[in-house]
Structures are given as C-alpha cells and as structure tokens.
Amino acid sequence: MKKIKLLHSFIILLIILFSIHFATNIYLIFYSPYYGNLIGDSYNFLIFGFYTQFIGFVFSLISFIALFFIKSGLYSTLKNGYFNKVSSKKFKIAGRLFFISGSLSLTWDVFLLFYTNGETLFEGISSNILLIFIGFSLLIISDFINNGNVLKQENDLTI
Amino acid sequence: MKTIKILKIIISVYYYLLIMAFIMLMISFSIDLLITDTTKIPKILNLPSLFTEMKTNLKIVMFILAILMFYVLIKALHNIKKCLIDLSYGTIFSQDVVSSFKKSGMFFLIAGFVELLTQFVLAFFDNGNFRILDSSMILYFVIGLFFKFLSEVFLKGLNLQQENDLTI
C-alpha cells in the first residue's frame, strides 16, 4: 500500500503542477501583450491561424482529465483494496483518455513534420508513444483487476 | 487479449526504435568528435545544434547520460516485453510477471532520475531552462511508480490464486 500511497501523492502533485501550468498559460495568452500575440499577418503562416497555440493545450487538457480518473482509481484502491470494480472502471476511462491524447499528439507531430518539410524534429514522439503505452497498459490493467475481483469473490464465497 | 497484442506491437516498435536511435547516436557522436568540418557530415547524422555548440567536456557528460538513459529504457522495455509474452499465453498471476513488473518500474524510475540529472546539467552548465512539465521526466516517474503498483496488484492476485487452488 506504501507504493500506492506514493503514486497517489505523486498524481496529486502532478495535478497541482498542471493547474499552475494551465493558469500561467491562460494568463499569458490573454493578458500578456508580448507572449503568443503575433503581429499583423503572422498568424497566416500558422496552420490554424490564431487557434494553433491552443492545439497543444487541448491535448494536455485531455491528459489532465485522465489524471483525475487515475487519482480517483487509486483512492478507491486505497479505500477498498486492490481488486474492486470502481478502480477498474476509473482506470479504463483514464486509459482511453491517455490513448486519445497520445494518438492526437502523435498525429499532430507527424503533421507538423510534413507541414514544415522536416524542419521540426520528432521531439515529442517519445512522450507521445509513452502516453499511448500508458493508455493501453491502463486498459489491460483494468481487465486484470476485474479478473482479480472474480478470484477474490470466489475465494470469499469458499470461505 | 486483443489489447495485449496491440500493446506488444507498440512496445516492440518503441524497443526497436530506441535501439536504432542508440546506434545513430553512437555514430553521430563519434563523427562529431572526429570531423570538425560539419558540412562534411551527412544531414541525417547531424546532431542537434544544442549539442554541437557545447564544450567537449559537457558533450561527453551528455553522451554518458544519453547512453545511460538508452540502456535503462531498453532494459525496462525488455522486461515489459517478457511479461507481455507471459500474459498473452494466459499466465496472468505468476512470479515471473510480478518480478518483471517490479524491474520495469525500477528502470523507469531510474530513467526519470537520469532525465532530471540531464535537465540539471543543461540548466547549470549550458544556461538552459529547467523544464519540468515539457520533458518526459514526469512520464517516466508516473510509469515507474505505476509498474511498482502493478507488481503489488499482481502479487496480491498470485496469492489469491494460490489460496483458491489450495482450497479446491
């Protein structure tokens, strides 16, 4: 349980860090005259014009929501033990969200690579693949938690 | 089982990409040290400008950190590949799976610390910015802790299964 508590605390810390990150970004986009506010026709060079700066923000937001589900799943594990339906359900939702976020980011990075004729490097590819990997792992784990739950119920009934 | 197969494919792709990137890094670094005229280096083997503009001592430190990072990640993925093979054969709760998850978790945590160290080195010796949320460091820590958590879940499952088998 010690490791789960540690992971739970780490996820809470991440949620706090992400919240600060989002708040700072929103402030800089809307209130700072020098950050992200390009002059005149400069937005025409960007793929989605003014809205290009929000693309990464949306992907991060999906991961941020997934973090809440992981936190909730871990809390349920701490409260009700390793094998319970609630945590399995939460992990499944978190897995799907991570998978969506990772896949969209990967597609965006590949799109940018072609759009800039290879000038942008595959910097984010490692993180994107890791996100997809976390997503799939969570989906598998939720299945195994369900398996464990069945075993536990059988065990309890036998006793 | 379909999800496990897809995950196996993702892990394998990532594993071989890492090995390829490692080989490329070795070749690029050797070329960078041996050839001073960068125009003679093929574009595909060019190291990022952030790296080429560094002093030689710092370059060597960064190279060692990169090797360590690749080694740790390859080892972590190797262990995951091993336990995914067990899982795909239907061996869910076994000691091998538990120990593979434990090792993978440890390797990912080490990868997180190596990334943290790299960020520190860049921030203090190369006037770079210390990036927390943008780097893969957090992902490595989350994955590491998550695999440690998984090893506990699978250990608990193994105990339950053994109890169940004994009762039958």
Description:
The complex is a heterodimer of chains A (159) and B (168). Chain A is an all-alpha fold and 159 residues long. Chain A has one domain. In chain A, 76% of the residues lie in helices and 0% in strands. Chain A contains 4 helices and no strands. In chain A, helix 1 packs antiparallel against helix 2. Chain B is mostly helical and 168 residues long. Chain B has one domain. Helix content of chain B is 79%, strand content 0%. Chain B is elongated and about 70 Å long. The mean pLDDT of chain B is 78. At the A-B interface, helix 1 and helix 4 of A face helix 1 and helix 5 of B.
- Number of separate structural domains of chain A: 1
Oligomer: heterodimer
What is the element string of chain B, with H for helices and E for strands?
A: HHHHH
Mean pLDDT of chain B: 78
Main sheet properties of chain A: none
Largest sheet of chain B: none
State Rg of chain A.
Answer: 20 Å
Alpha carbon gap, first and last residue of chain A: 24 Å
- General shape of chain B: elongated
| Category by helix and strand content of chain A | mainly alpha
Helicity level of chain A: over 70%
In short:
In chain A, 76% of the residues lie in helices and 0% in strands. With 159 residues, chain A is mainly α. Chain A starts with a helix and ends with a helix.
List keywords for this structure.
heterodimer; A: 4 helices; 76% helix; B: 168 residues; mainly alpha; elongated
List the helices and strands and how they pair.
The complex is a heterodimer of chains A (159) and B (168).
Chain A: H1 2-31, H2 55-80, H3 85-115, H4 125-158
Chain B: H1 2-34, H2 49-52, H3 56-88, H4 95-125, H5 137-167
